[in-house]
Write the structure tokens for this entry.
Amino acid sequence: MTEKELKELLHSMSLQEKLGEMTQMAPNFFGTSDSVDLTGPMKAMNLKPEDVAYLGSTLNAFGAEKLIAMQKEHMERQPHHIPLIFMADVIHGLKTIYPVPLAMGCSFDTGLMEESAAMAARESAATGIHLTFSPMADLVRDPRWGRVTESPGEDPLLNARMTAATVKGYQGDDISAPDRIASCFKHFGGYGASEGGRDYNTVDVSDGVLREYYLTAYKAAVDAGAAMAMTSFNTIDRVPATGNKKMFRKILREEWGFDGVAITDFDAVGELIPHGLAADGKDAAEYALKAGADIEMMSTNYLNHARELIEEGKVDLSLIDEAVWRILLLKNKLGLFENPFKGADPEKEKALHLCPEHLALARKAGSKCVVLLKNEENLLPLKKGVKVGLAGPFADSTSVLGGWAFADSSDRATLKSGLLEDGVEISAMAMTEELGSMQHGIMDVSDQTAELDALADCDVVIAAVGEHPDDTGESASKTILRLSHNQEKMLEKLHDMGKKVIAIVFSGRPLELRPVVPFCDAVVQAWFLGVEAGPAIADVLTGTVNPSARLSMSFPQTVGQIPVYYNHMNTGRPLEGPYHRFVSGYLDCPNEPLYPFGYGLSYSDYRYSGFTVRTVKNAEDGTLAEVSVDVENVSDVPGRETVQLYIRDVAASVVRPVKELKDFVQIDLGAHEKKTVVFKVTREMLSFWNNEAVVFEHGDFDLMAGHSSEEVLKERVAL
Ligand code: BGC
């Protein structure tokens, strides 16, 4: 449609029709008989039957045939035949589920992220979906929060790059293309800072911390052209995000120039009442409309109260028109007025879902996300001729997709089948009963440690441990991050039996591994890797793939340390060396995490040398210095190294973190190959928010490059 036609359409719509456009309901409200995947609490919606014809979008309806039929029926009923937008939570793939976002963050591979998101877009578009509620750009520091699994991790730069790559992967250059979908970034903003890691809880961070850490990745989504933004459930500076004018009108739209649609999270307008912002539904609608939430998801406060608010002069009709205009623009950009079914195609859907190319990509992605945390005496990769035993609740489990997977798992996904496919002979298995979920009231199903005697003849035992996938994701906060009692006992007993123990940890968050690491000769963090989890892990265990992933989130020594993250501020009494009184530390635990951000081993060994800093004067691109470092693969195994650049501003008008990642590159190094990596350090990288504006202040900076946030070479320079 031309802009003129679109304007005419807007002006010819009745108020109730406009409010319907601004309301999103689950598919069951459209009269579908199928059961639906509800992703939030279901309340009495107060949706009048006559309003159904006006609704503008729906969420989490799947299947080309079904969506084509729904669209046809809806357009017949809608007075102006306006098509619906089909939105869905395609978080890490539709049918070909790839690793959870936290694992993808560990790949540090933005190209892989973009490719994986493009695959998800292809499968979703063929099924008739037009928009996904992804990426989740929330920065995360607290593994008690179940939703850390949906984020790329704790670092603003890595999050921003991964977020931008995800948006590009979904949207490509043109969201109307039959194999592309629009992207909605979420949850704006700062949801990852929920107090105590408890979901939906209060967020109270300073403006500086919000802007420099938490908002960075959302901004990257805006700059990458994301079509939609979603509000978060939390308060920010005591105002819930969904009614927060400063966040939505000022920062998002005025400062960042976002001109897409803003949608609330599930029932978040209604939740303004228990939050204590709004007195009732009408009040809630007023707050959300004024804040600029264009679509209300899964509640009907706009439909039921906006007319009265306008009549009373509390809300201007122009606010409604502005919102509907943005929604119509999005429908137009998606090409829905010309082709309301867009990519929906039952044949294509069948051909694409879980097709061999997609499975191959999921397998590759999986192997790039596996983080090798410990590997004593090069136990891994598995050596030929050793007798391998397999144990633990994830040994033969298909529950390895992770949360937000509206897809089936198959036997192929299991570790056992992956190992067999890669030619590993499994001599014996024990204690493989699957784990229950905390959510369902149990973890260990029964004590089976006696079974381990069946592994007496094995040299090496692969122990597949972890947490149930239902215990991660939304509404899955925990205060205990240890493995279940049985699993800890299992690892200890295997160690006592004199076995070489390889722990494979399946989880959606950093777990507290300190109690078990001493019992393990090797520890492999496998996250939840999707439909090809088993083969992907087996590829790493057998050495077909040399692990290259790095932690995108620190692993705590103990829950009591949380939050523990690498880019923290210093104190006036920093702890240096062993603990003593009157410094900032713990009596019973070091300050450092068990495994830091950026950490991860490989089958190669890398040596860093030749670290030099060259200052640069008057460069047009703002370069102030160049950091150069030589990286040599001192092993016989070709590998991929992620070289990381960190900085520290030694003294500034507001205190700066002890380390900040400013760039990273991935280089492939053949056996004994050496390469020089040169990083530019720009004025922009050294600038910061001084509580009023982004500024650069001259002074001393520590420039650091290395293998992880803790293993760096460094030099102090005046810039
Ligand atoms: C979640 C969102 C999700 C939405 C729709 C909410 O409960 O917080 O992340 O996109 O439901 O399913």
